[in-house]
Design brief:
The protein has helices spanning about 15-25, 75, 80-95, 105-110, 125-130, 160-170, 175-180, 210-220, 225-235, 240-250, 255-270, 275-280, 290-300, 305-315; strands at about 1-5, 30-35, 55, 65-70, 95-100, 120, 135-140, 145, 150-155. With about 325 residues, the chain is an alpha/beta fold. Helix 6 packs antiparallel against helix 7 (about 175-180) and helix 11 packs parallel to helix 14 (about 305-315).
Length: about 325
């Protein structure tokens, strides 16, 4: 049983707590505890009504898998109870991993847990976090990121994305995708995806059959996603399907498939130990070289360079990785 503890200085943003709570609650291997820095069993929220069933800090179990700190007006105030910060630091020291949701990053920073690390928070607070905690390297773009055993996430719903990523880390992609389906989420977003995501802007397409096709494509990246096959699934001619795709996504079908595969590969590179050839196969690319070209075309870096920058650099605490004369995509 993995013990998840969610806390935050009240009042908290309610979705920062309930979003991750719903993700973990769907799997029997997790037990979630809400820890209240105040007295009583109700954690106050910014919406005027409390979350019941909380426990006092001293009642939190000793064995903790993941400590998560929620954001909200309490975290954004900049004034923290020293005893609470001490509890956060001590509890983090006996947790396998520590995470913040949204502006909960300010609490982790104040407790010294982000010193010398990369972090992200809600886009509108990134400059402030960098200004108040210069010892933290603030990256404003990702929706969540990991630096060793510390995870931070962007605004509000990104906490759900982070929780899904933790589920995937523990149980694999299929388990995380099953939880996403239960929550009726369109997809499991990769952490490296920008807070203002190109892909995200296409999730609210008006044409429902195309939305349903997007979900099916995500689950069948290794399948036949050629224009003719997708058009047949939609009951359209290839020409008409291409027109619909361009109208709804501003990309032709081939570009859209390529982008979905690249984003799936980004997620897999960041959350698994698979080699690039395995990632390419799992995401439906014909070869590692094909994935390399797609990454270069869409992201401006090869898959090997992406892995080096966004995975290996984090695992080595952002130390510079020496250049290798060999092509990283062939490793």
């Amino acid at each position: 049983m993995r013990q998840i503890v969610i806390s935050g200085p009240p009042p908290v943003q309610i979705l920062d707590v309930t979003g991750p709570l719903e993700v973990f609650a769907g799997l029997s291997e997790y037990r979630v505890t809400i820890a209240n820095p105040e007295s009583g069993d109700q954690l106050q929220t910014s919406r005027g009504f409390p979350i019941g069933g909380a426990v006092r800090l001293e009642e939190v179990p000793e064995a903790i898998d993941t400590l998560m700190i929620a954001g909200g007006p309490g975290a954004e105030s900049g004034t923290f109870d020293p005893q609470y910060l001490a509890w956060v630091a001590e509890t983090a020291s006996r947790s396998r991993r520590v995470a913040s949701i949204c502006t909960g990053a300010f609490v982790l920073a104040a407790a010294g847990l982000l010193d010398g690390k990369q972090a992200v928070t809600h886009w509108s607070f990134c400059n402030r976090l960098a200004r108040e905690f210069p010892q933290v390297t603030v990256r404003p773009d990702p929706i969540f990121l990991r630096d060793e055993s510390v995870y931070t996430s962007a605004g509000i719903t990104a906490g759900i994305d982070l929780a899904l990523a933790l589920v995937e880390e523990d149980n694999g992609h299929e388990a995380a995708l099953a939880v996403a389906r239960r929550l009726v989420m369109f997809l499991v977003r990769p952490g490296g995806q920008a807070q203002y995501s190109h892909m995200l802007s296409h999730q609210a397409v008006a044409f429902q059959p195309l939305r349903e096709l997007q979900v099916w494509m995500l689950e069948h990246l290794r399948g036949d996603l050629r224009v003719d096959a997708l058009a047949e699934r939609m009951g359209m001619s290839a020409r008409h399907f291409t027109r619909v795709c361009l109208r709804e996504t501003r990309m032709n079908p081939g570009q859209f498939v390529d982008r979905m595969r690249v984003e799936a590969a980004q997620q897999m590179i960041g959350s698994s130990q698979k080699g690039l050839k395995e990632v390419a196969d799992a995401c439906g690319f014909q070869s590692a070289d094909s994935m390399r070209r797609s990454f270069l075309r869409i992201l401006g870096v090869t898959a090997g360079e992406y892995a080096t920058r966004f995975k290996r650099a984090v695992q080595t605490n952002r130390s510079n990785v020496a250049s290798d004369t060999s092509d990283p995509d062939e490793r």
